Amino acid sequence: MHIQRIQVPNFRVLQNVDITFEKEFMPRIFPLGSENGGGKSTLLQLVFILLHCSAHENRKEYIQNLLEDFDVPEGETTRELAKFEIWDGEKTVELAFSVCNDDFLNDLSKVYNEEFSFVDLAIVSLSKKFEYIKNNQEMVDVDPSMRKRFMAAKRILEYLQNYGLLFITYYSDSLSEYNILVCSTSNHNKKEDSDIESMLLEISSQVHLAAPSSHVYLFFTQKNRQALFVQNAWNEYINQLLKAKEKLPNFFIHNFLLVDALLKTFQYARDKDFKQAIETNNYGNYYINVLKDLSYLLGNKKITPSPELDRIIVKQETPQGEMELGPEDLSHGEIKKLSIYVWLKYIIGENAIVLVDEIENTLHPDWQYQMVDNLKEWGPNNQYILATHSYDVCQALTPAHVKELEPKLLKNNP
Ligand SMILES: Nc1ncnc2c1ncn2[C@@H]1O[C@H](COP(=O)(O)OP(=O)(O)O)[C@@H](O)[C@H]1O
Ligand SMILES: [Mg+2]
After folding, report:
1. One digit per residue, pLDDT tens: the chain, 414 residues?
2. What's this model's pTM, rounded to 2 decimal places?
3. How many CB atoms lie within 10 A of CB 235?
4. Is the C-beta atom of 13 inside 6 A of ligand 1?
5. CA–CA distance from 210 to each of 114, 311, 343, 355 (Å)?
6. Which residues contact 32 (CB under 8 A, 6 or more apart)?
7. Which residue from 84, 105, 229, 387 could staple onto 116, CB 3.0 to 4.6 Å apart?
C-alpha cells in the first residue's frame, strides 16, 4: 500500500496542497517539511482520520470532530476536502472526499415535490436499522413514527449513489443543520457503494499514525483539545488519549504505554517459540532474537522482562559492574527509539502506510540521521511520511524524497 498523491485544496491552514510520493523511490521514506504552523500535523491527522475511520462506524466521531468547522461556502452545494491516489499493489485507486450541504438535495426535492434534508439521513444513520436501507433490505420493524425519515434517508442514499457518492458520516456544529461527508472513486466503472467501502476497509487497516502525547489532536472534541491547556483538566485529556487509542487501533503515541508494548512483544515471542516447539519439538529463537535486537538498540543497556512477564528490567554496564534500572530511568530519546522499534517490528504489519509526526523530537542529531536506516531495517516494506524539522533526517535521503508544504522551509542558499 502506498499513497502516491495527496491533494487538499483548502482545509484549515492547508491551501492548494498537491504532493506526490513516488512509489519507485527507494527507500519509500518521505520527510515532510514546513515552517512551524505550516500544516504538517494538520495534514497527517486529516489523512489518518479520513483513511482509518471512514469504513468503521465506531470511529466516525473522530471525523465529525475534525470537520466541525468545515462548511460549504454560501451559494454552493459541495466542497472538496481531499483527494488521494493510493497504490494497492496492483493498481492506483483514486479516492475523493468531499462534503455536501442540504442544497445538494434540491434536485431530489424537485423530483418528489417535497423538501429533503440530511437531518433525516443523520438521524437514521444512528439507528441499528440503518443497515436495512444501506443493504436495500425490506424495512421491517421500523417504528411507524420513524418510517417517513427512513423513506427519506433511503431516497437520499439512492440519489447519492447515482452520483457515485458513498455516504460516510454526517457532521454538524448546529443541531438543525447537517453536512455530510461523502467519498467517491473514479476507478470502477460500476461505482457501487460496496466497491468503495471495501477499498476503504482495506486501506483503513494499513494506515498508521504515530505522534507525541502532548499534541493537540484536531480529531478530539474542542472541549477535549482545550483540556490540554487547563490546569486540573489534564486527566480529561489523558482519558481522551486512552479512549482514542482504544477506538483507533492504528493510532500510536510515542512513549505512551511503552512498557505494555514491550511486555506484549516478549509474550508474543514466547508464544511463537512455544508454538514452534509443539510443531517441531524444538523451541524457536524468537525470544532470543528480540533480546539481541534490544541490546543492540541502546548500546550498553540490556532490556529483559521479569520472569513473571509483568515488569521490564533495564541493565546497564558501568565501570563498577552491572546496574539495574527501570524503564522510567531511560532517557526520553532512548524511550522514543525503543517505542518506534517495538511499534514497527512487532505491532504494525507489513506493507503499511506509516505517518509519523515529529520523528526527530528528543533524538540526538546522529540518531535523527540514523532513523532513516532504522526505519528501513525495522519495517522495510512500508511507506513512511515523516513530518519533521530535521535537516539530519532529510540529509539521510535524496533531496527529491523531501516534500514541503508552503511556506517553504528557508533554503540554505537563498
Ligand atoms: N481553523 C483554522 N484555519 C486556518 N488555520 C488554522 C485553523 N486552526 C488553526 N490554524 C493554524 O494552523 C496551524 C497549525 O498547523 P500545524 O498543522 O500544527 O503545523 P505544523 O505541524 O506544520 O507546525 C497553526 O499555525 C494555526 O494557527
Ligand atoms: Mg506539527
Report:
1. 999 999 999 999 999 999 999 999 999 999 999 999 999 999 999 999 999 999 999 999 999 999 998 999 999 999 999 999 999 999 999 999 999 999 999 999 999 999 999 999 999 898 888 887 777 777 677 777 788 888 899 999 999 999 999 999 999 866 668 999 999 997 655 556 678 899 999 999 999 999 988 888 999 998 888 887 888 878 888 888 899 999 999 999 877 778 888 898 999 999 999 999 999 999 999 999 999 888 888 888 889 999 999 999 999 988 888 999 888 888 888 888 988 998 998 888 899 999 999 999 989 999 999 999 999 999 999 999 999 999 999 999 999 999 999 765 455 544
2. 0.93
3. 9
4. yes
5. 47, 24, 9, 6
6. 19, 40, 43, 44, 385, 386, 387, 388, 403, 404, 405
7. 105
Q: Identify which of 309, 307, 311 has the alpha carbon closest to the alpha carbon of residue 326.
A: 311
Contact 406, 34 (CB under 8 A): yes
The residue written with cell numbers 492504528 in the block is 250
Check if 23 has its Cβ closer than 6 Å to any atom of ligand 1: no
- Give me the residue spans of the domains in the chain: 2-99+179-238+244-250, 257-347
Q: Which amino acid belongs to residue 57? A: E
Say which CATH architecture domain 2-99+179-238+244-250 belongs to: 3-Layer(aba) Sandwich (3.40)
Q: What is the pairing mode between strands 301-305 and 312-318?
A: antiparallel
**Distance in angstroms (rounded) separating the CA atoms of residues 253 and 244:** 10
12 lines ligand 1 (CB under 6 A): yes
- Which of 8, 12, 403 is the best mutation target for the ligand 1 pocket, counting ligand atoms within 8 Å of the beta carbon and taking the most? 12
> What whole-number distance in Å separates Cα of residue 265 and Cα of residue 271?
10
